[in-house]
């Protein structure tokens, strides 16, 4: 995979099925009505539309699925997806056939995933993310940990970052007797989409700065799917696509305001991760920061900030790849009817496979 890949020339406007357009419009409308002018969220309204997927009561082909509690006092938990029938080549290149319903004997990489939603919406149980994480687990023969973190505005910065880091420490501590014994924590990937990608970045920065405090867990790859970064400056894509579904300028401005500490603007380090010389120098000194995959969409207003993130990592001497889907709207991967969705899952698979083989 080259450092920068563009799949096709960008069309004048996104080419989407009516089904996708309606779904994007509905979700945008619901979140608009749920966002109150006083900086709160109507959770009851969101609960009517954010359909949750329960842990299956019956066996699921190829997977064991369970919920693991980390800290009940802050509703910190994760949904665990463990492959049980590893018959194809895993990312490590090994082939192991396991009886259906049993735990695979093969050591499997671990993919810790943070869901999107602007820090304020959705959860690890949201049906869309349940589908995505099942697919990640099956297609990568990887143990997937989907983190349920606290949401803003009830819990502002840095709560989400603390939750992410604490999940890493919890997994590394081996406190969870139900965590798969065949999990290879030396082949750990962090990733997420949108705000979840932002959380994954900050959790990775903290973990790699403190790598000597981990016993087994080692992050060898970071996956950034349409990451949510920002700043006070308005970029070309933000202006041109200011009325885009899900992440229009009024929506993202509101999300940053209710997430960031009171009195802080979007140049805060949570949003503008390379916004100061100090942050750049800290990244240059972070020798354990892993190889990173950045995915952007041509019709995503966030794409210019994501590209700056990619460029910032390169300037700091980090290994980083950029994939752009010119027809990609924000959250395109949630819609299996879009051709870019399959392409993205293949890119993620290839990235994990490449890093596991090198390991």
TrEMBL record:
In Gene Ontology terms, what is one molecular function of this protein? hydrolase activity
This protein's source sits in the domain of life called Eukaryota
**Family annotation (InterPro entries):** AB_hydrolase_3, AB_hydrolase_fold, Carboxylest/Gibb_receptor
Q: For the Alpha/beta hydrolase fold-3 domain, which residue ranges apply?
A: 112-333
Q: What is this protein called?
A: Alpha/beta hydrolase fold-3 domain-containing protein
Tell me the organism. Answer: Papaver nudicaule (Iceland poppy)
List the taxonomic lineage: Eukaryota, Viridiplantae, Streptophyta, Embryophyta, Tracheophyta
């Amino acid at each position: 995979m080259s450092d920068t890949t563009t799949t096709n020339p960008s069309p004048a406007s996104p080419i989407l099925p009516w089904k996708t357009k309606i779904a994007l419009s509905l979700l945008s409308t619901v979140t608009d009505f749920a966002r109150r002018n006083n900086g709160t969220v109507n959770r009851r309204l969101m609960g009517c539309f954010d359909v949750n997927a329960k842990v299956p009561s019956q066996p699921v082909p190829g997977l064991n699925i369970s919920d693991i509690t980390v800290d009940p006092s802050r509703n910190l938990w994760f949904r665990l997806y463990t492959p049980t029938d590893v018959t194809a080549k895993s990312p490590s290149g090994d082939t192991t056939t396991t009886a259906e319903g049993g735990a695979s004997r093969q050591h499997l990489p671990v993919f810790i995933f943070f869901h999107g939603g602007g820090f304020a919406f959705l959860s690890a149980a949201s049906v869309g993310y349940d589908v995505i994480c099942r697919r990640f687990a099956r297609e990568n023969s990887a143990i997937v940990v989907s983190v349920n973190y606290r949401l803003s505005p009830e819990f502002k910065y840095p709560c989400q970052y603390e939750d992410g880091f604490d999940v890493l420490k919890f997994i590394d501590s081996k406190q969870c007797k139900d965590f798969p014994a065949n999990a290879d924590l030396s082949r750990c990937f962090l990733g997420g989409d949108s705000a979840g990608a932002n959380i994954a970045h900050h959790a990775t920065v903290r973990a790699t700065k403190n790598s000597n405090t981990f016993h087994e867990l080692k992050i060898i790859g970071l996956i950034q799917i349409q990451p949510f970064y920002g700043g006070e400056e308005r970029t070309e894509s933000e202006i041109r696509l200011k009325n885009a579904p899900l992440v229009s300028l009024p929506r993202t401005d509101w999300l940053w305001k209710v997430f960031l500490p009171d009195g802080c603007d979007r140049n805060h380090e949570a949003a503008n991760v390379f916004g100061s010389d100090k942050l750049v120098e800290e990244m240059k000194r972070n020798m354990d920061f892993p190889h990173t995959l950045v995915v952007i969409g041509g019709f995503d207003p966030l794409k210019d900030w994501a590209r700056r993130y990619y460029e910032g990592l390169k300037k700091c001497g980090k290994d980083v790849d950029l994939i752009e889907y010119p027809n990609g709207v924000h959250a395109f991967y949630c819609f299996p009817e879009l051709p870019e969705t399959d392409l993205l899952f293949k890119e993620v698979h290839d990235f994990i496979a490449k890093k596991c083989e090198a390991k």
